[in-house]
Amino acid sequence: MPASMTAFARVERPDPRGGLIRVELRSCNHRFLSVICNLPPDLRLLETELRRRIAARLTRGRIDTSLSLAEEERKETLDERTLARLAHSVEQVARAFPTARLQIDPLAVLNRPGIRTTAPGDDALEKKLHSVVLESFEEALGSLLAERRREGALLGTFLRERLVRLRALLEQIEQRIPTALDSARTRLHHQLRELEQQEGLSEQPREQALLLLSQKSNVGEELDRLRTHFARIDELLEAAEPIGKHLDFLLQETQRELNTLGMKLAHLGDFSDPVVKAKVRTEQLREQSCNLE
Fold first, then answer.
1. CA 15 to chain centre
2. Is 52 among the domain residues?
3. 171 shares a domain with 256
4. Digits of tens for pLDDT over the chain (293 positions)?
5. Domain limits at 51?
6. 200 Rama sector, left if φ>0, alpha if ψ -120 to 50, beta otherwise
7. Are residues 157 and 43 in the same domain?
8. CB neighbourhood size of 162 (10 A)
9. Are 31 and 88 within one domain?
């Protein structure tokens, strides 16, 4: 069954250190697989593993991964070594520019990365945190995949309905062709007969003109290819693997065949209405297929 590229999932679990772990996954359309990770410092070591797990389950879509830790308040301390290195650097700058007046903003110093730290945590507790985060992420990823499949099933139903209407338009066009061809031949025959009488033309040019009309109006190949495309689309909508790119290609080819069909049928009369409707149906199919993985 087809899967959509649009979905959302959220999982929340207690943080073993106190507080709350929140995992959010957002998926939207993209030509390829693009993973964006927004992780707090405590969890950045897990980014490679998170990317690996996503790539193992998905092939297309932009996946925004957000992990947050709503921790209980923990005592903060100043990192004396980092602070000393910063003070030393300030002294060097002051010696290099003795005439400059250096003003140190204590709040700016506190907001520098690495200055404020929390009390070091227990290694076993950190491992437990990573384990809980990965479990939460796996649950969120499973929910995201399920949502993509549900959305994909709805899109599949929509595409099948549009394909039925597209087939009906093609049948309508095909049924009109023999009558339109006979009428066009009759009109051409009368026109050539009048020219024969006025200009004294022989019968051979008339036969050549009728043959040329038949050749220009022969749309058998286009109709066969369209039916083949429709049959293949039916197969794709039942397939288990990702179908988005293949489906988009087939619909582009369908649109190209309809363009050729319209140009050829212009010699037989007014087929513009059903052909334009068929093109609109095909474009609707293609727009929705862009949402499929």
1. 35
2. yes
3. yes
4. 788 999 999 999 998 877 889 999 999 999 899 999 999 887 888 999 999 999 999 999 999 999 988 765 555 677 788 888 888 887 887 777 777 777 777 777 777 777 766 555 557 778 888 999 999 999 999 999 999 999 999 999 999 999 999 999 989 888 887 777 666 666 666 655 665 555 555 555 555 555 555 555 567 788 889 999 999 999 999 988 889 899 999 999 999 999 988 887 776 677 778 888 999 999 989 988 888 98
5. 7-75+136-151
6. left
7. no
8. 16
9. no
